[in-house]
């Protein structure tokens, strides 16, 4: 097999030196990006960029016997660049809303409903306001915990909540 010097001289003179270089170092160059655990596509890009760099700098190689090391260093630099670039990328789906944006008329209707609900809630007595806020924001609480928080009997939580919701419903409907 020809030495690197003979292959480089042959390539520079137009013979088949390039194919011999690729055959000789292909596995080595390919192993570098794969050692960085790059995807197959990214590793293929690094592989191609490494060979492109060699083609661009082939006439500047002073020590042909160090060509393997040069290829490894170049592939390493390329792999690190890909890793850094991937670390800065944000997947596109993080920027897209989870659901389509509502139409402006839907936003207006929802905003109006929320305004009427909060207006009606503030007209309820303090006990109903507190009970409904607890029910809305802490549904996991048991009746015993709600009763203790409000200072009422456990048996009155359910009926009081029902009366408060009925009153809230009447007030919301009255605001239409």
UniProtKB/TrEMBL annotation:
Keywords: DNA-binding, Sigma factor, Transcription, Transcription regulation. Pfam families: Sigma70_r2. Gene3D superfamilies: 1.10.1740.10, Winged helix-like DNA-binding domain superfamily/Winged helix DNA-binding domain. Residues 21-88 form the RNA polymerase sigma-70 region domain. InterPro entries: RNA_pol_sigma-70-like, RNA_pol_sigma-70_dom, RNA_pol_sigma70_r2, RNA_pol_sigma_r2, RNA_pol_sigma_r3/r4-like, WH-like_DNA-bd_sf. Belongs to the sigma-70 factor family. ECF subfamily. This is RNA polymerase sigma factor, sigma-70 family. It comes from Lentzea xinjiangensis.
């Amino acid at each position: 097999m020809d030495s690197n010097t003979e292959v480089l001289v042959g390539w520079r003179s137009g013979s088949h030196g390039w194919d011999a270089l690729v055959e000789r170092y292909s596995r080595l160059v390919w192993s570098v990006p794969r050692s960085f655990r790059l995807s197959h596509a990214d590793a293929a890009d690094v592989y191609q960029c490494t060979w492109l760099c060699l083609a661009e700098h082939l006439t500047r190689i002073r020590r042909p016997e160090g060509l393997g090391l040069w290829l490894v260093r170049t592939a390493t630099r390329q792999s690190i660049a890909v890793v850094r670039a991937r670390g800065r990328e944000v997947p596109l789906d993080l920027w897209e809303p989870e659901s389509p944006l509502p139409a402006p008329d839907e936003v207006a209707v929802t905003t109006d409903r929320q305004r009427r609900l909060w207006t009606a809630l503030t007209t309820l007595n303090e006990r109903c306001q507190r009970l409904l806020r607890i029910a809305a924001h802490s549904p996991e609480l048991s009746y015993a915990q709600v009763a203790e928080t409000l200072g009422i009997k456990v048996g009155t939580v359910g009926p009081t909540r029902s009366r408060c919701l009925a009153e809230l419903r009447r007030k919301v409907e009255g605001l239409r």
